[in-house]
Amino acid sequence: MKKILCMILALAMLIACMCTLTSCSKKNSVTLNVYNWGEYISDGSEGTLDTIAAFKTWYKQTYNQDITVHYTTFQSNEDMYAKLSSGAVSYDVIIPSDYMIARMKNEGMLLPLNFDNIPNYQYINDSFRNLYYDPDNQYSVPYTYGVVGVIYDANVVDEADAGDWDLMWNEKYAGNILQFNNSRDAFATAQYKLGLDVNSTDHASWDAALAELKAQAPLVKSYVMDEIYNMMESGEAAIGAYYAGDYFTMLDNQADSVDLQFYYPERTNYFVDAMCIPSCCQNKDLAEIFINYMLSEEPAIANAEYIYYASPNSLVYESEEYQEELGEEAMEILYPGIENFSELYNEYAYRNLDADTLAYITTLWESLKIS
Amino acid sequence: MKNNKPNRGLALMQRLALAPYSVWSVLFIVVPLLFIAYYAFTDSAFHFTTDNITRFFTATSEVADGDGVKLVRTYLVIFWRSLRLAVISTLICLVLGYPFAYLISRAKPKTQGILITLIMIPMWMNFLIRTYAWMTILQDTGILNGLLGLVHLGRVHIIGTESAVVIGMVYDYFPYMILPIYSVMTKMDVRLIEAAHDLGCSGAGVLRRVIWPLSLPGVISGITMVLIPSISTFYISQKLGNGKFYLIGDAIESQYVANNLHFAAAIAFILMVILLISMAFMQRAANKRASV
Amino acid sequence: MKPISKVYTALIMIFLFAPIAILLMFSFNGTKSLSVFSGFSLHWYQELFRDEETLGAVKNTLILAVSASLISTVMGTAAAVGMDKLKRRYLRAAMDVVTNIPMINPDIITGISLMLMFVFVGRFFGAATSLNFGTMLIAHITFCLPYVILQVLPKIQQMDRSLPEAAMDLGCTPLRAFFKVEVPEIFPGIITGLIMAFTLSLDDFVISYFTTGNGFQTLPIRIYNMTKKTVTPKMYALATIIFFVILILLLLSNVFDANTAQTIKEAREKKKAKSKEV
Predict the structure, then answer these.
(1) Domains plus CATH for chain B?
(2) With an 8 Å Cβ cutoff, are C75 and B33 in contact?
(3) What confidence tens digit (pLDDT) does each residue in B166-182 have?
């Protein structure tokens, strides 16, 4: 019996070694490394398009070459930044948010794009060009954009109470309210409510926001990030702030006893996530081909339908098929008024804050959490 | 006359056996630690400073206190909270697990095998999924409340309280308490217990004077394997504590994410030192007991 | 077993298996809900098998866990043997401390510290990327080793020292004595250590996150990403499959253990008989 066990063990080790060796040899083929948010690309589940697989097929057909795509995900801009800045990993395409792009650009971590390789850029709406984080449109190609709004269960909440940020501070719904479990977003809700600048470097402004959050704390059921989906859908909580696209994801999955509605408060957060090429990129041409592919009609529509976030790509929002798929109500919510987007965006979007302010925010956040 | 050659060969063999691990441990345990110490005692320009360490002990925050505010030491409060929850969980694991380990060790070998196998199964289920399953059980709209509703027993609010976090930690680390104790108990000489009985010891007496001291190495092992991860856990507190309990693991994570690597390293360094010292004390206490 | 023991055992088992029963049940749920069961369906299993990313992650995790647990068990058992015989007090204490450190360190710090070191070394050698399967393997072995040693060392300490000595007196070389006498005695410890190492490696999230490079995604990381949007029972389907695989493996190893226990018993009897003769 022992001998059999030894043989099994030896065999297992052999298989392990072989697998490592084969994965080593794969490095000789062309590889593309993509770093994106989690669940932020159409991946083939529930009958949708598997974008990465489609890209590989398309590339094979067009260039007659096999490629390997390593698709990794990150949880937050800061996580991605930490990994990239340490030099531990190398990616060819990354998809961070605006303020992080500004930071990385300033620190020389991005490569300027060669738009000759990205002809599909023409389909990006003008409102999304020349934004603060990339004023000369050299380093990024917008992927999605969105606005933060408030989601509530109409079966629990009175219509009259809804409309602005104060619903999240309403004592009538104590124990039914959800708040962001990350400092920047949580403070922002308080700052928008008070009419403060979310990019202020004035400590007093942040202190005021903290006071609001502390006042809210006894009413909060839970500080959430991705837990919000489950909690809103099952009726565990009735009020929460999140991104418009995620509202539709929740709407799809809500329990029978729950009736989710959505609205934008007057002052709220606008964001853009864009595709960039980091300076550690090992295959710039391939990266640009990939970006161009993501802008082409079929993948762009598939991604937009899967993620449910708004797309800055005219091939998407002007497509009849897409408009039908989403429905009128969704189109209205996701694409409120693209004309004054730049204006609102420049006023309300997050900007990168300096180290001192960031350290101060972290301290305030901790004091909220331990009270 | 004993031949000395096998003994020398034995000694050589034993020294060789330890070699790979010695090298490995220096490279991959000691050196990274030096990195932590290095980061803990330097600032962002990599100049020597003790600011990070002192910050841990002196940073203060304002918290509500009745009608007014009071100042508390931020990280000491966080540490104390983590320690408290970890100790509670460890004690519950010990109280529940010790008798259970004893039961198993006295059962028939076949039963023992089955029981141990059963205990190990939750360990294999992915820890994130297990925590999610507990969320769906403990939620206000969850399964527990559903069941209680069926029998008209009213609702309980567990999720988001410390109890939920403790339940989560006990569940995750329970097998780690049982296995070492069981491991030691199976090697315990039953005749000692029988002898104690024969000499007139009561049940409780046997437990206190014979079983407990003999099982102590296993208990220490179990406590170590439960207490340490419990102190530094952060996922459980986020999911089952509804993000309301900011523990030392959360603190380290948020400092890392905010790119304050030096302070994160400082917190880790201090935590490590505290844990090492307490482990040393525990070992001493165990050795003293064992020699009595 | 006395009735109260049986009741106690049953209660503990209910506690341990309640969440597992829940996720088994909900993996067959007809809807996406995680708390309301409505109808039986294999839909999530179909989704799972279409999900290439998850299947890739499973493969990666298995390769990593098998390699890490085997290597750490061999190294750890050897280490435990060596540590047991350390005469000098300070060396022994040093070894104890060093062994305990990976267990004491929060995962996040072990992960970050290893990452820093690998990056430093990588930069030193001018590599483009410093993290890959190799670095993950090293990290996993490192955190598995203490647990193996912690399982094997007590067994060695409790072992009857006269047995290997008797074997050597009877003409065994030290190596042979080790493999024929000591190993069977401490085998339960070794196996427990191996299984523990395997479990730890399988389930590790935090350390893997910091030491992984491109493209090598393990299952816990994949599951963590799956929970980032709406959590569907697909995750539960995955857990259910893992559960049944584990169940079968453990049942098999249980059978093996029973045989080992039998072999150990017989070996002991033989030795006792032999020493009586002398």
Answers:
(1) 74-291 (1.10.3720.10)
(2) no
(3) 999 999 899 889 988 98
DSSP-based three-state secondary structure for A93? strand
Decide: pTM greater than 0.90: no
Do the chains contact at B183 and C188, CB–CB below 8 Å? Answer: yes
Contact B259 A181 (CB under 8 A): no
For residues B137 and B126, give the distance between their C-alpha atoms in angstroms, rounded to a whole number: 17
**Nearest CA-CA distance, residue A204 and chain C, Å:** 33
Average pLDDT over residues B247-259: 82
Whole-number pLDDT of residue C255: 67
pLDDT in tens, C203-241: 888 888 778 776 678 888 888 877 766 677 888 888 888
Three-state secondary structure of A143-194: EEEEEEEEEEECCCCCHHHCCCHHHHHCHHHCCCEEEECCHHHHHHHHHHHH
Q: How far apart are CA C44 and CA C28, in angstroms?
A: 7
pLDDT at position C93 is 80
Write down which chains contact chain C via at least 3 CB pairs under 8 A: A, B
Residue pair C174/B13 in contact by the 8 Å Cβ criterion: yes
pLDDT category of residue A216 using cuts at 50, 70 and 90: very high
Nearest to A362 among B77, B141, B258 (CB): B258
Q: A146-269+350-369: which CATH topology?
A: D-Maltodextrin-Binding Protein; domain 2 (3.40.190)
Domain at C53-277, CATH from 1.10.3720.10, 2.60.200.40, 3.40.50.300, 2.40.10.10: 1.10.3720.10
Which chain C positions have a beta carbon within 8 Å of B254's beta carbon? Answer: none
pLDDT at B8 exceeding the cut of 80? no
Is B144 touching A (CB cutoff 8 A)? no
Cα angle B170-B171-B173, degrees, rounded to a multiple of 5: 65
Please name which of A122, A147, A97, A146 lies closest in space to residue A276, comparing C-alpha atoms: A97
Which amino acid appears at position B58 of this protein? T
Q: State the Cα–Cα distance between residues A137 and A133, nearest whole angstrom.
A: 9
Say how many C-beta atoms besides its own lie within 10 A of residue C118's C-beta. Answer: 27
Q: Min CA distance, A236 vs chain B (Å)?
A: 6
> Would you kindly state where each structural domain of chain A is located, as residue ranges?
30-140+276-334, 146-269+350-369
The shortest CB-CB distance from C98 to any of B2, B25, B134 is to B25
| DSSP letter string, A14-82 | HHHHHHHHHHHHGGGSEEEEEEEETT-S-BSGGG--BHHHHHHHHHHHHH---EEEEEEEESSHHHHHH
Per-domain residue ranges for chain C? 1-41, 53-277
Q: ipTM score of the complex?
A: 0.79
H helices within B30-73, ranges in order?
31-40, 51-58
Task: Tell me if A194 sits within 8 A of A240, measured CB to CB.
Answer: no
Closest CA to A322 of A298, A352, A340, A295: A298
Q: Which residues contact A47 (CB under 8 A, 6 or more apart)?
A: none
